[in-house]
UniProtKB/TrEMBL annotation:
SUPFAM superfamilies: S-adenosyl-L-methionine-dependent methyltransferases. It comes from the Bacteria. The lineage of its organism: Bacteria, Bacillati, Bacillota, Clostridia, Eubacteriales. Belongs to the class I-like SAM-binding methyltransferase superfamily. rRNA adenine N(6)-methyltransferase family. RsmA subfamily. This is Ribosomal RNA small subunit methyltransferase A. CDD domains: AdoMet_MTases. Its EC number is 2.1.1.182. S-adenosyl-L-methionine binds at N29, L31, G56, E77, D102, N126. PANTHER family: DIMETHYLADENOSINE TRANSFERASE (PTHR11727), DIMETHYLADENOSINE TRANSFERASE-RELATED (PTHR11727:SF7). Keywords: Cytoplasm, Methyltransferase, RNA-binding, rRNA processing, S-adenosyl-L-methionine, Transferase. The keyword Transcription does not apply.
Length: 289
């Protein structure tokens, strides 16, 4: 049986057979397009050597593809109603383990130790859109050994993750993601590739984890506070945003001096600063303010 689920007919058959009801609260939009599935697998660069962690296998459509291309798959699914379906659709794949849990409650380091002896894994998912950001930031912040994360997300969110200074999509999420990984949008995916159809466009994005952060920052947490402060009121100057934000409490003089140290004019806005410049700003405050 080769990846039998990636078409509408089989997906509807299995859903009807098990009388499965879609749960909106779990962001359940199942993929029904084999071309998109092929693209995700190719973008994730899965080989037989790989252990893949899949978040939200649904009825196991992508799981089958991953099991055929990868060494092993650990699939974490929150909805217990999907377990009998997964048992059936994945019965021919002994290299798949299904864990019934909320991914936000899973200790990623422990999971990787248990299923891949602590060696780096790849993460692949058609993510539930209601928790895209906490899932991705949680994976990065856990410092768990992850080579890359290839995920379907809302199109706008993918654009924000990949955006650079000067773009309207550039913001705190762009900088947070780009501190940890190189972001690359692989494909845009229209609503008709899913059952049921989502109300928004989607995109597949690959986040290739940096071995070392691309910039040297003394206190990354301070840098992220500065970033949040700068983008909270994005039409204001950087100076005013930092003066008025509860995220940081530096004197007006220190803020002016820090901006000057970047060689930027006092009228500069936060949205004009690169990740490197936010790093320099944070280093200035932690060293001199
Ligand atoms: N991978 C399947 C596919 O592509 O057809 C399903 C993708 S669907 C967009 C998202 C999946 O994530 C659903 O199966 C949903 O039940 C599951 N899910 C939602 N919230 C979750 C959570 N917190 N932890 C684990 N799985 C979750």
């Amino acid at each position: 049986m080769y990846s039998s689920l990636g078409n509408p007919k089989h997906t509807i058959e299995i859903i009807q057979k098990h009388k499965f009801n879609f749960q909106k609260k779990f962001g359940q939009n199942f993929l029904i397009d084999t071309h998109v599935l092929d693209k995700i697998i190719a973008a994730a660069r899965i080989t037989k050597e790989d252990c893949v962690v899949e978040i939200g296998p649904g009825i196991g459509t992508m799981t089958q593809y991953l099991a055929e291309c990868g060494g092993c798959v650990v699939a974490v699914e929150i909805d217990a109603n999907l377990l009998p379906i997964l048992e059936e659709t994945l019965k021919d794949y002994p290299n798949v383990r299904v864990i019934n849990n909320d991914i936000l409650k899973v200790d990623m380091n422990q999971l990787i130790r248990e299923y891949n002896n602590g060696r780096p894994v790849k993460v692949v998912a058609n993510l539930p859109y209601y928790i895209t950001t906490p899932i991705i930031m949680g994976l990065f912040e856990s410092k768990a050994p992850i080579d890359n994360i290839t995920v379907m997300v809302q199109k706008e969110v993918a654009q924000r993750m990949q955006a650079g200074p000067g773009s309207k999509d550039y913001g705190a999420l762009s900088l947070a993601v780009q501190y940890y990984a190189e972001a690359y949008i692989v494909a845009n995916v229209p609503p008709n590739c899913f059952i049921p159809r989502p109300n928004v466009g989607s995109a597949v994005i690959r986040l290739t984890r940096y071995l070392e952060p691309p910039i040297q920052v003394d206190e990354p947490r301070l840098m992220f506070r500065l970033i949040r402060a700068s983008f909270n009121q994005r039409r204001k100057t950087l100076q005013n945003s930092l003066n008025n934000s509860p995220e940081v409490s530096f004197s007006k003089e220190a803020i002016m001096a820090a901006i000057e140290s970047l060689g930027m004019p006092p009228s500069v806005r936060g949205e004009a600063l690169t990740l490197e410049q936010f790093g320099l700003l944070a280093n200035y405050f932690s060293r001199y303010a």
